[in-house]
């Protein structure tokens, strides 16, 4: 029984959130590393993407671009670049309905990264009318 209690106390508390936003919004994805100290490794990924790349990856430097999924390049940044007090939250900019999915934050200050938070993000259409010009003389509403 003592081993089970020790295991529970040494595991991080996993936070789970559900967020619904409109297209075009900038969305903070919260992740607070409970162990404090310097975060040496941070991985943000979307679990339903087939390509095994991250939406954000930090390992000593703010971003390893070769590891980042192409649809997230230029749209994700740390909420606090210093990651003070274990704040590993990121901001996902200009979301689209294609950003709907489940996001996971894993972090470590040494060793293997631990799952810290899970966010179910739903992006709804903002209801704005988008015009697509087929020819110079006519436009269609989509």
UniProtKB/TrEMBL annotation:
Domain (Ig-like) ranges: 12-122
Xref: InterPro entries: Ig-like_dom, Ig-like_dom_sf, Ig-like_fold, Ig_sub, Ig_V-set, T-cell_Activation_Regulation
Locations listed in the record: Cell membrane
Transmembrane stretches, start-end: none
Keyword terms of this UniProt record: Cell membrane, Disulfide bond, Glycoprotein, Immunoglobulin domain, Membrane, Receptor, Signal, Transmembrane, Transmembrane helix
Source superkingdom: Eukaryota
Pfam family of the protein (one): V-set
One Gene Ontology CC term in the entry: external side of plasma membrane
Signal peptide positions (record): 1-15
SMART domains tied to this protein: IG (SM00409)
Entry protein name: Ig-like domain-containing protein
Any one GO biological process: cellular response to lipopolysaccharide
The organism of origin for this protein: Channa striata
Membrane topology type: Single-pass type I membrane protein
């Amino acid at each position: 029984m003592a081993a089970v209690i020790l295991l529970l106390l040494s595991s991080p508390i996993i936070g789970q959130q559900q967020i619904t936003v409109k297209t075009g919004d900038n969305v903070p994805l919260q992740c607070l590393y409970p162990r404090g100290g310097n975060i040496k490794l941070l991985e943000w990924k979307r679990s339903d993407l087939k390509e095994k790349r991250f939406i954000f990856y930090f390992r000593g430097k703010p971003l390893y671009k070769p590891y980042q999924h192409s649809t997230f390049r230029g749209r994700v940044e740390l909420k606090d670049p210093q990651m003070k007090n274990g704040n590993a939250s990121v901001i996902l900019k200009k979301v689209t309905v294609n950003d709907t999915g489940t996001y996971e934050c894993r972090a470590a200050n040494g060793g293997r990264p631990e799952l810290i938070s899970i966010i179910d993000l739903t992006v709804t259409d903002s209801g704005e009318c988008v015009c697509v010009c087929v020819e110079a003389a006519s436009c269609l509403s989509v």
